[in-house]
Amino acid sequence: ETLERQISTASSLRNSLSLLASALGDRVRMGDLSVTPQVANGSVATASSPVGATGSGTYSLEVLSLATTQTLASPPLASSTTAVGAGTLTFRFGETTGTGFTEDASREAVTVDIASGATLTDVANAINGKKAGVTAYVAQTSEGAQLVIKGPEGAKNGFIVEAAGDEGLAALAWNPSDGGDPARLLAASADAQFRLDGLAMSSPSNTTGTVAPGLTLKLTGTNVGAPTTISFSSPVANISSAMQDLVSVLNELAGDLRAATDPMSGDLSRDPGARALKR
């Protein structure tokens, strides 16, 4: 029982110190004691600093356009439970427009198997189950049930659909270079376009990489012709309160140590490690 009490007390002290170190570290790295970037026009973007990186100074940001995903719709069917046939759907990726397609030869095509008797809902589930970056759902429109397929953000993430199998499945195929109906392309994929300090930049995603020392962006809107300012906040005003918090926690830990090393009642009164920690 004595040993269990000693282990419990030592563990409690160790956990308290570990939590203090972790909380203080997080507060310095990512909390109110860190230098954090702020975007004056919050509707355009949010800014952050990669872990371990810091930035300084000010920047101007003008977002010309956001990264978009290709959105493709199938011809309308009677309902989501209408059978479309069996076979395969193959997705090839690259740059797509309403009239042409340039394949990205570095990317492998994705083939989705469609079972016999599959409905439009089954096709959507099969595409989603592949988890290849292309997602699908069935929309009930005024014209009927339509399969909607979306790709990832970025100009090179456009796609075409090839079909092999039953005639019903062939209706889901789409390739603008082979006469695919351009009306089925609801939105084309594109990179985000923006200017930082007047310098033209682009990103395949609305979440950019590091665009300047200690600065990454998540683009959320456009501000063509009205650049906003990015600045780095100073943590100086928060240091005083942080030191007060630190002193309070250290005093609490000191009290726990005094109790643990009390010569008469402390469970760790004879433990050299606890006495050294107290000193």
Plain-language structure description:
The structure is a single chain. This protein is of the alpha+beta class. The protein has 5 helices and 16 strands. The chain is elongated.
Describe the SSE topology.
Blueprint: H1 2-29, E1 37-39, E2 45-48, E3 58-65, E4 69-73, E5 87-96, E6 101-103, E7 110-114, H2 120-130, E8 135-141, E9 144-153, E10 158-165, H3 167-170, E11 185-187, E12 192-196, E13 199-203, E14 207-212, E15 215-219, E16 228-232, H4 236-260, H5 272-278
Antiparallel strand pairs: 1-16, 2-15, 3-12, 3-16, 4-9, 4-11, 5-6, 5-7, 5-10, 8-9, 12-13, 14-15
How would you sum up this structure in a few lines?
The protein is an alpha+beta fold and 279 residues long.
Number of strands: 16
Overall geometry comes to elongated
Radius of gyration: 30 Å
What topology, given as strand order, has the largest sheet?
Answer: 1-16-3-12-13
Helix/strand structural class: alpha+beta
Q: End-to-end distance, in Å?
A: 27 Å
Question: What is the average per-residue confidence, as pLDDT, rounded to a whole number?
Answer: 90
What can be said about the biggest beta sheet?
5 strands, antiparallel
| Poorly predicted regions | none
Order of helices and strands: HEEEEEEEHEEEHEEEEEEHH
> In percent, how helical is the residue content?
25-40%
User: β content, as a range?
Assistant: 25-35%
Discrete helix count: 5
